[in-house]
């Protein structure tokens, strides 16, 4: 596999020679970068990255191998391709089951080593995210814009799945949900019903207390069915919490607007400030779109201290709220795990148990 | 937020010493700037005159006074500050502040402690209470106990079981701590620890746990961020200051990274930290199910090892590693600002509430100088022994590690160790400065990473990377053909041109030429703290071969490069950084853009706001050439960063770079002993008789002719390394055989050692051979004590006007002859009013900041003027006050080392104080470098030799008159009694107690005078067996922190001053007051 010359090509015509350490497969997608220094197994399995060729800015990737599947954010590698500066094929960690290269080969996802990932990053931040493709040898494939497709439909669960032990049930609308959302809910003794993105929750045959709209890939407007359904949920005054894409969907459902950021937020060090208290929290983010107009009846809950974009909205009176960042973290800082508690408190739903403070993955969760 | 504070007192850290070095110059300077931006008046107490923070243009008032409660209280009484900052001056400032609070001084004068609350700091300093605090908030600490006596310690040990880690409480840099495996080792270390600290903490030793650190900042609104995490390459058990450290962590998963981060924030919050805090963890790399905490789930088994509620060595490193100005931010937070209000000085578009994302990695490597300390033990452990450090930046571990090895200065590559092979296993298993090299050799010899991991506990991740370096070299040795791909592979793995050349039989110049032809040049990348996420114009740069673009455009002919000093080590310290900084700052006055090149994270020169561009890079020919070629600068300055940049003169000049100032040819004339001597003869200037030799016979012949003693040294001298005075043939032959200094490249110099001579320093700046400014200072000790270890006074006190006149004339002649432009220094030896030239350095000397402050003239600025031919002659008035510089030794940190002054330098830092006269300045200066108690009127005298006794007689009498109770060893006591001086005789150290050691260990004496004879045959025995009586007395004194005088002249001067002034007589005057 090693030493086979391949290329990363960007829409603007630039080309980068590379070495391949993953699957030898040409792919096209949207090229984005993320700046987190640890947490590549989590990032690679985050469904929000579906359709994207991910450039990791930290130059040494593969250091601690890949853990067992139960530790990951979904059951498969979600990125279309991975670009790193230096791939490390000699991992060292007690949780490592295999090397990153072996995992990606097994998953059919290309992994390229391009030395100057900083140049790619600078290009993306100056010109905005860009389409790109990984090309092996002479094989040429067309550029492909994943945002035109309904990525949410692609990554969402196809049928209802139940997680957690018996207990009050909450609904997680799966627009590409990270498993750690499920784990953080289950850690509070809740039973989590993960439903497909286009499920009309109001017509579910079992009782539940609240709805969480998950994160997910691409343009929120493509999730038209979810937006429609969320309107119904709110009309029924069901407590609702949106996360990431869920923030945008909630805003759109209530008459707000969204727009595409020039280069999204994809890092683990985004400062979100709670507007009322002025208190700051470091958050993990992974989104290319943002809320522009805040819907009527809502106010800004959080804003980003760097670029002042919206980081969350909250209803003036009802238990309806959403955040642009990832309170479930994974990867990234766990400073906003309290969002879940706050939501349940506002909704008047005392969770059966306090979240366990330590640990993050699959606490009390049995993945069915 | 408007702060009501108007005037704030900042405590510095005093002299540089092991465990507390230049990082506090950086942190204090940043804090002062942070306060000044808020229009707050700043008062600084710090006797370290070579620091940037004590510059007259920084703090509003600077007091060069001891950092002791008495003096700080006096300054408080005089200045009446509203607040005080204790966390910017290391353990020294913190301890001083805690005592002031304890005594009620702060309350009395209504001085508010800014930043973290004192109660929290106290809590973190009391290991037992702190452990129970952490347990209370659910943070695991290693099973432990505290003891205040040996018997208590034994009991704790019995409960916990060996092996154990023992540490002294309230001690800086892990002094007197270590791993003990049995009762005997326990007793040894506990005794030592209890000598300096009221309490020892004993804890379970966590074998081969990873050591991970977090640097956290928190504001008073409970916003907190973990600015950086770091991983020690060495496992737990080696002090972080002596460990190779990488940032960010390399082997931690997201869960581990975040769980430890969360724990750090929790600790910081629980303590109410306002500002900076460092948290150190031990993490089990292979947790077993049984070691898991109930909430810890399946991954994490960790303990908190240490918390420093103040700026530290690690925070300076974190600051440089990430570009996040920790000290500046901590200064603002202490004023009550929120992290969200403080602009990110690097990006200028974001604020300080974020955690830097790195798109590179750094390797910090300590610099030890253990070979410089006679008798010092080589192994490293939980007590810090290194004297400096370097930081290397790269895009692969291989690249950064290899850079760090070169920066540190001992080797060209980790594979470049010339290991004899016999002791390899020993050097792999016992941690010493050589371990990294032994590991590389072991891997080269076919040991597996797993095998080495089992022995060392170094995570296999690092070992695989080192193996990669080793393998790449092996491959190249087998087939040393340099094509484009091979060259790139070698450069990406961090090999230098010189090393590549040495493998394939070429010079570094040839490799460089080939490399340029192949178009393999390093990329210039910037550190922007956000991994490129936000467009940021930063001036913080590094070189990498893992890239193919540059982040910046060359400065071109507007640019001038200033070469810094590299790592601090014995002989090269903060004073050279001071000169580099002022040189860089002054360039803008001439319309130039400054480029600083340096690799030392403890410095002010590597701060983001000291230059137009900062290259955090090595001071080597290859790196400097790559940078100045890329920048295509107007010129470069090599004469302000000490000997290391100065040594590059010939190579850089050969490649056609424009060296500003004295030409490389003339530098060579001053450094080549033969050329230099011929020049002095031509000028009719006296020099001690000397000869260069390459055989023993020649040396003997010279010594017989000129007579003993003789001084033997290599031709390129740095900090007196491998220099020795020999009093007879046996010593001469011994030294030469033992030190193996005979090398054909640099012949060895033997010169007549003139005894009982005075030594004077001449420092100046010249332009085209004309003196612009100069100063003459005088050594208190006789010639023979290295100038770095000497006590120095300015202006001269005991020098004839005619001598000074001669010196000036000689200096003018030399300056003219060498057409000196820029700074230079001449060392003179004076006997019978006749000056001899010992040495000329065509660069700024160690005394530059001292003289600049003493003369109220900025010598580096004048040097810059001279480089640009814009200098003019300065005439400075004769000073109203006197300034005395005292050396600071770190012998206490180096067990086994003999604390005695020799021709080789051993001090790690210095202090200097002003006074109305010599006596007052000397007294303050000695007090600043020693813990001297005026009230303890007891002294131990141990005067070796008849001459010393006779010369000390008057002084002994004055001690008697002062009411001192005198203890004296046998012959000294007999002598004193004969002279009718009252004294108590004490037995020799090896005799039964009570003996000399007992009275030192029980702290019955205020200070110790131990004069030994180096002349005659008796000293030969002393050399052979270091465990002499004198050695044991000296060692006991430093181990018990009792001031020790080993030089006759200094001891006499000090006691004379003591007779003249009481502590109340010492003036509390700021620097400015000595000039107005």
UniProtKB/TrEMBL annotation, chain A:
<comment type="pathway">
    <text>Pyrimidine metabolism; UMP biosynthesis via de novo pathway; (S)-dihydroorotate from bicarbonate: step 1/3.</text>
</comment>
<keyword id="KW-0067">ATP-binding</keyword>
<feature type="active site">
    <location>
        <position position="326"/>
    </location>
</feature>
<comment type="similarity">
    <text>Belongs to the CarA family.</text>
</comment>
<keyword id="KW-0436">Ligase</keyword>
<dbReference type="GO" id="GO:0005524">
    <property type="term" value="F:ATP binding"/>
</dbReference>
<keyword id="KW-0665">Pyrimidine biosynthesis</keyword>
<keyword id="KW-0028">Amino-acid biosynthesis</keyword>
<dbReference type="GO" id="GO:0006526">
    <property type="term" value="P:L-arginine biosynthetic process"/>
</dbReference>
<keyword id="KW-0547">Nucleotide-binding</keyword>
<dbReference type="GO" id="GO:0004359">
    <property type="term" value="F:glutaminase activity"/>
</dbReference>
<feature type="active site">
    <location>
        <position position="328"/>
    </location>
</feature>
<dbReference type="InterPro" id="IPR017926">
    <property type="entry name" value="GATASE"/>
</dbReference>
<comment type="function">
    <text>Small subunit of the glutamine-dependent carbamoyl phosphate synthetase (CPSase). CPSase catalyzes the formation of carbamoyl phosphate from the ammonia moiety of glutamine, carbonate, and phosphate donated by ATP, constituting the first step of 2 biosynthetic pathways, one leading to arginine and/or urea and the other to pyrimidine nucleotides. The small subunit (glutamine amidotransferase) binds and cleaves glutamine to supply the large subunit with the substrate ammonia.</text>
</comment>
<feature type="binding site">
    <location>
        <position position="245"/>
    </location>
    <ligand>
        <name>L-glutamine</name>
    </ligand>
</feature>
<feature type="binding site">
    <location>
        <position position="216"/>
    </location>
    <ligand>
        <name>L-glutamine</name>
    </ligand>
</feature>
<feature type="binding site">
    <location>
        <position position="218"/>
    </location>
    <ligand>
        <name>L-glutamine</name>
    </ligand>
</feature>
<dbReference type="Pfam" id="PF00988">
    <property type="entry name" value="CPSase_sm_chain"/>
</dbReference>
<dbReference type="GO" id="GO:0044205">
    <property type="term" value="P:'de novo' UMP biosynthetic process"/>
</dbReference>
<feature type="active site" description="Nucleophile">
    <location>
        <position position="244"/>
    </location>
</feature>
<dbReference type="InterPro" id="IPR036480">
    <property type="entry name" value="CarbP_synth_ssu_N_sf"/>
</dbReference>
<protein>
    <recommendedName>
        <fullName>Carbamoyl phosphate synthase small chain</fullName>
        <ecNumber>6.3.5.5</ecNumber>
    </recommendedName>
</protein>
From TrEMBL, chain B:
<protein>
    <recommendedName>
        <fullName>Carbamoyl phosphate synthase arginine-specific large chain</fullName>
        <ecNumber>6.3.4.16</ecNumber>
        <ecNumber>6.3.5.5</ecNumber>
    </recommendedName>
</protein>
<keyword id="KW-0067">ATP-binding</keyword>
<comment type="pathway">
    <text>Amino-acid biosynthesis; L-arginine biosynthesis; carbamoyl phosphate from bicarbonate: step 1/1.</text>
</comment>
<keyword id="KW-0547">Nucleotide-binding</keyword>
<dbReference type="InterPro" id="IPR005479">
    <property type="entry name" value="CPAse_ATP-bd"/>
</dbReference>
<dbReference type="InterPro" id="IPR011607">
    <property type="entry name" value="MGS-like_dom"/>
</dbReference>
<keyword id="KW-0677">Repeat</keyword>
<comment type="function">
    <text>Small subunit of the glutamine-dependent carbamoyl phosphate synthetase (CPSase). CPSase catalyzes the formation of carbamoyl phosphate from the ammonia moiety of glutamine, carbonate, and phosphate donated by ATP, constituting the first step of the biosynthetic pathway leading to pyrimidine nucleotides.</text>
</comment>
<keyword id="KW-0665">Pyrimidine biosynthesis</keyword>
<dbReference type="GO" id="GO:0005524">
    <property type="term" value="F:ATP binding"/>
</dbReference>
<dbReference type="Pfam" id="PF02786">
    <property type="entry name" value="CPSase_L_D2"/>
</dbReference>
<dbReference type="GO" id="GO:0004087">
    <property type="term" value="F:carbamoyl-phosphate synthase (ammonia) activity"/>
</dbReference>
<dbReference type="GO" id="GO:0006221">
    <property type="term" value="P:pyrimidine nucleotide biosynthetic process"/>
</dbReference>
<keyword id="KW-0460">Magnesium</keyword>
<keyword id="KW-0028">Amino-acid biosynthesis</keyword>
<dbReference type="Pfam" id="PF25596">
    <property type="entry name" value="CPSase_L_D1"/>
</dbReference>
<dbReference type="InterPro" id="IPR036914">
    <property type="entry name" value="MGS-like_dom_sf"/>
</dbReference>
<dbReference type="Pfam" id="PF02142">
    <property type="entry name" value="MGS"/>
</dbReference>
<comment type="similarity">
    <text>Belongs to the CarB family.</text>
</comment>
<feature type="domain" description="ATP-grasp">
    <location>
        <begin position="677"/>
        <end position="868"/>
    </location>
</feature>
<dbReference type="GO" id="GO:0006541">
    <property type="term" value="P:glutamine metabolic process"/>
</dbReference>
<keyword id="KW-0436">Ligase</keyword>
């Amino acid at each position: 596999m090693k030493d086979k010359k391949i290329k990363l090509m960007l829409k603007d015509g630039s080309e980068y020679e590379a070495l391949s350490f993953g699957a030898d497969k040409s792919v096209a997608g949207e090229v984005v970068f993320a700046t987190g220094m640890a947490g590549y197994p989590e990032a690679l399995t985050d469904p929000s990255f579906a359709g994207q060729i991910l450039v990791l800015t930290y130059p040494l990737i593969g250091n601690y191998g890949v853990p067992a599947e139960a530790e990951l954010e979904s059951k498969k590698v979600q990125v279309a391709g991975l670009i790193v500066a230096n791939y490390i094929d000699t991992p060292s960690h007690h949780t490592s089951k295999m090397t990153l290269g072996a995992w990606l080969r097994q998953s059919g996802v290309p992994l390229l080593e391009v030395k100057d990932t900083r140049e790619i990053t600078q290009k993306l931040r100056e010109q905005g995210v860009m389409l790109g493709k990984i090309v092996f040898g002479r094989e040429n494939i067309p550029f492909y814009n994943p945002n035109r497709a309904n990525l949410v439909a692609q990554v969402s669960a196809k049928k209802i799945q139940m997680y957690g032990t018996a207990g009050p049930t909450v609904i997680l609308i799966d627009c590409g949900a990270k498993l750690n959302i499920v784990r953080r809910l289950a850690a509070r003794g809740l039973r989590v019903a993960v439903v497909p993105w286009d499920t009309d929750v109001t017509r579910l045959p079992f009782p539940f207390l609240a709805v969480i709209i998950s994160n997910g890939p691409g343009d929120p407007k493509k999730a038209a069915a979810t937006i429609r359904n969320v309107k119904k949920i709110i009309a029924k005054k069901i407590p609702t919490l949106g996360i990431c894409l869920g923030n945008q969907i909630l805003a759109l459902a209530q008459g707000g607007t969204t727009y595409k950021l020039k280069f999204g937020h994809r890092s683990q060090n985004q400062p979100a400030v709670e507007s009322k208290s002025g208190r700051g929290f470091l958050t993990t983010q992974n989104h290319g779109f943002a809320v522009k107009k805040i819907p009527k009846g809502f106010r800004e809950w959080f804003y980003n201290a760097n670029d002042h974009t919206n980081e969350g909205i909250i209803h003036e009176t009802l238990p309806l709220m959403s955040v642009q960042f990832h309170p479930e973290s994974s990867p990234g800082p766990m400073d906003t795990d309290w969002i879940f508690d706050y939501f349940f408190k506002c909704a008047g739903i005392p969770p059966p148990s306090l979240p366990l403070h330590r640990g993050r993955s699959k606490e009390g969760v049995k993945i069915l | 937020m408007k702060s009501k504070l108007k005037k704030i007192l900042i405590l510095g850290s005093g002299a540089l010493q092991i465990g507390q070095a230049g990082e506090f110059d950086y942190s204090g300077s940043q804090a002062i700037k942070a306060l000044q931006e808020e229009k707050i008046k700043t008062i600084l107490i710090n006797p370290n005159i070579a620091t940037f923070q004590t510059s007259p243009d920084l703090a509003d008032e600077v007091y060069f006074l001891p950092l002791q409660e008495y003096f700080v209280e006096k300054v408080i009484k005089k200045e009446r500050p509203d607040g005080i900052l204790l966390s910017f001056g290391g353990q020294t400032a913190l301890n001083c502040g805690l005592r002031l609070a304890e005594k009620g001084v702060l309350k009395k004068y209504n001085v508010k402690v800014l930043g973290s609350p004192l109660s929290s700091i106290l809590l973190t300093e009391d290991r037992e209470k702190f452990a129970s605090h952490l347990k209370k908030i659910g943070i695991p600490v290693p099973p432990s106990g505290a003891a205040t006596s040996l018997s208590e310690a034994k009991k704790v040990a019995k409960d916990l079981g060996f092996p154990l880690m023992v540490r002294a409480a309230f001690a800086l840099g892990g002094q007197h701590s270590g791993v003990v495996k049995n009762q005997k080792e326990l007793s040894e270390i506990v005794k030592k620890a209890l000598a300096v600290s009221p309490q020892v903490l004993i804890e379970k030793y966590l074998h081969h746990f990873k050591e991970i650190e977090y640097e956290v900042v928190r504001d008073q609104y409970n916003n907190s961020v973990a600015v950086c995490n770091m991983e020690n390459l060495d496992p737990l058990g080696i002090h972080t200051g002596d460990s190779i450290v990488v940032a960010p962590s390399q082997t931690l998963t997201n869960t581990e990274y975040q769980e430890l981060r969360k724990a750090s924030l929790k600790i910081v919050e629980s303590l109410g930290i306002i500002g900076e805090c460092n948290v150190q963890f031990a993490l089990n790399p292979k947790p077993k199910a049984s070691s898991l905490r109930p909430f810890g789930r399946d991954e994490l088994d960790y303990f908190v090892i240490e918390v420093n509620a103040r700026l530290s060595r690690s925070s300076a490193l974190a600051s440089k590693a990430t570009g996040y100005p920790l000290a500046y931010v901590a200064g603002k937070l202490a004023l009550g600002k929120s992290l969200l209000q403080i602009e990110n000085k690097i990006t200028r578009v974001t604020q300080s509430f974020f955690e830097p994302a790195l798109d590179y990695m750094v390797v910090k490597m300590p610099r030890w100088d253990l070979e410089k300390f006679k008798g010092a033990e080589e192994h490293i452990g939980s007590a810090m022994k290194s004297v400096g450090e370097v930081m290397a930046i790269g895009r692969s571990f291989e690249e950064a590690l290899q850079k760090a090895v070169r920066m540190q200065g001992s080797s060209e590559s980790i594979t470049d160790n010339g290991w004899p092979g016999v002791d390899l296993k020993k050097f792999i298993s016992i941690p010493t400065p050589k371990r990294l090299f032994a590991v590389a050799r072991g891997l080269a010899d076919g040991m597996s990473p797993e095998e080495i991991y089992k022995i060392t506990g170094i995570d296999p991740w690092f070992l695989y990377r080192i193996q990669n370096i080793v393998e790449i070299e092996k491959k190249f040795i087998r087939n040393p053909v340099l094509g484009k791909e091979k060259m790139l592979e070698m450069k990406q793995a961090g090999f230098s041109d010189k090393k590549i050349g040495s493998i394939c039989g070429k010079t570094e110049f040839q490799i460089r030429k080939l490399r340029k032809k192949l178009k393999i040049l390093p990329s210039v990348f910037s550190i922007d703290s956000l991994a490129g996420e936000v467009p940021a114009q930063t001036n913080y740069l590094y070189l990498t071969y893992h890239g193919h673009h540059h982040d910046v455009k060359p400065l071109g002919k507007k640019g001038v490069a200033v070469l810094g000093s590299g790592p601090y080590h014995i002989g090269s310290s903060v004073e050279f950084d001071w000169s580099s900084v002022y040189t860089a700052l002054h360039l803008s006055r001439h319309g130039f853009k400054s480029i600083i090149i340096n690799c030392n994270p403890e410095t002010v020169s590597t701060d983001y706001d000291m230059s137009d561009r900062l290259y955090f890079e090595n001071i080597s020919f290859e790196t400097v050439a790559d940078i100045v070629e890329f920048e295509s600068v107007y010129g470069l300055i090599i004469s302000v960063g000490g000997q290391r940049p100065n040594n590059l003169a010939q190579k850089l000049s050969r490649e056609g770079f424009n060296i500003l100032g004295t030409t490389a040819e003339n530098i060579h004339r001053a450094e080549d002993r033969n050329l230099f001597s011929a020049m002095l003869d031509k000028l009719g200037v006296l020099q001690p008789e000397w000869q260069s030799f390459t055989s023993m016979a020649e040396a003997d012949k010279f010594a017989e002719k000129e007579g003993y003693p003789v001084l033997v040294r290599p031709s390129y001298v740095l900090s007196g390394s491998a220099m020795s005075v020999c009093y007879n043939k046996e010593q001469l032959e011994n030294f030469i055989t033992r030190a193996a200094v005979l090398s054909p490249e640099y012949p060895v110099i033997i010169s007549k050692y003139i005894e009982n001579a005075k030594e004077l320093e001449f420092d100046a700046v010249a332009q085209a051979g004309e003196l612009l400014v100069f100063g003459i200072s005088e050594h208190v000790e006789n010639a023979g004590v290295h100038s770095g270890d000497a006590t120095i006074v300015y202006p001269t006190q005991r020098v004839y006007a005619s001598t000074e006149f001669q010196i000036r004339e000689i200096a003018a002649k030399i300056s003219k002859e060498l057409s000196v432009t820029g700074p230079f220094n001449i060392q003179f030896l004076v006997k019978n009013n006749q000056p001899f030239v010992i040495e000329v350095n065509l660069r700024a000397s160690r005394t530059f900041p001292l003289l600049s402050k003493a003369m109220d003239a900025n010598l580096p600025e004048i040097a810059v003027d001279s480089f640009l031919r814009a200098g003019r002659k300065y005439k400075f008035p004769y000073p109203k006050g006197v300034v005395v510089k005292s050396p600071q030794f770190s012998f206490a940190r180096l067990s086994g080392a003999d604390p005695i002054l020799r021709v080789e330098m051993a001090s790690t830092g210095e202090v200097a104080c002003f006074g109305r006269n010599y006596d007052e300045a000397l007294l303050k200066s000695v007090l600043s470098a020693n813990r001297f108690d005026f009230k303890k009127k007891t002294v131990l005298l141990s005067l070796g030799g008849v001459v010393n006794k006779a010369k000390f007689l008057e002084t002994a009498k004055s001690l008697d008159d002062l009411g001192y109770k005198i203890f004296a060893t046998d012959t000294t006591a007999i002598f004193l009694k004969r002279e009718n001086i009252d004294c108590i005789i004490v037995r020799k150290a090896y005799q039964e107690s009570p003996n000399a050691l007992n009275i030192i260990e029980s702290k019955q004496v205020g200070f110790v005078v131990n004069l030994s004879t180096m002349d005659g045959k008796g000293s030969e025995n002393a050399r052979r067996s270091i465990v002499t009586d004198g050695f044991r007395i000296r060692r006991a004194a430093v181990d018990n922190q009792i001031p020790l005088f080993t030089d006759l002249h200094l001891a006499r001067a000090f006691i004379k001053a003591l007779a003249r002034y009481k502590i109340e007589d010492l003036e509390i005057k700021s620097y400015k007051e000595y000039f107005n």
